[in-house]
Write a structure and sequence with these properties.
This is DUF2190 family protein. The protein is mostly beta strands. The protein has strands spanning 11-16, 25-30, 33-36, 45-51, 54-60, 62-68, 74-80, 85-88, 94-101, 105-109. It has a five-stranded antiparallel β-sheet, with no helix packed on it. A five-stranded mixed barrel has the order 6-8-7-9-10. Strand 9 (94-101) and strand 10 form a beta hairpin.
């Protein structure tokens, strides 16, 4: 039997996001609006759908992201890398629950 995490408490909200694309890590940039995160900005979710200028942003649940740096299992501080991935951080970053890791990916519960 294999382990599976997809679908765990997945919540998706719709935001106005004309400049974001599927796969972008995003921040809330205004009333009902999201923008792509630059390096070291905290993210609120991952764009999983796009229709016109509107984006479906996964705000909770399991997601797999590109990863670099030192990321450990359990609760780990992470920064965005500005290229839709995350890196391990020591201070000033958000903490997320890491439950799976690949060579250049990490699976987190947001």
């Amino acid at each position: 039997m294999d382990t599976a995490y997809q679908g765990f408490e997945t919540n998706v909200l719709t935001f106005y996001g004309p400049d974001v694309a599927i796969g972008d890590l995003v921040k809330v940039s205004g009333e009902g609006t999201v923008a792509k995160c630059a390096a070291k900005e905290p993210f609120v979710g991952l764009v999983v759908t796009k229709r016109g200028d509107f984006a479906g942003v996964q705000m909770r649940g399991y997601m797999e992201l590109k990863a670099g740096g030192t990321i450990t299992y359990g609760y780990c501080k992470m920064d965005t890398d500005g290229a839709n991935g995350v890196t391990g951080a020591s201070t000033g970053a958000m903490t997320h629950l890491v439950i799976s890791k690949g060579t250049d990916t990490v699976g987190i519960i947001l």
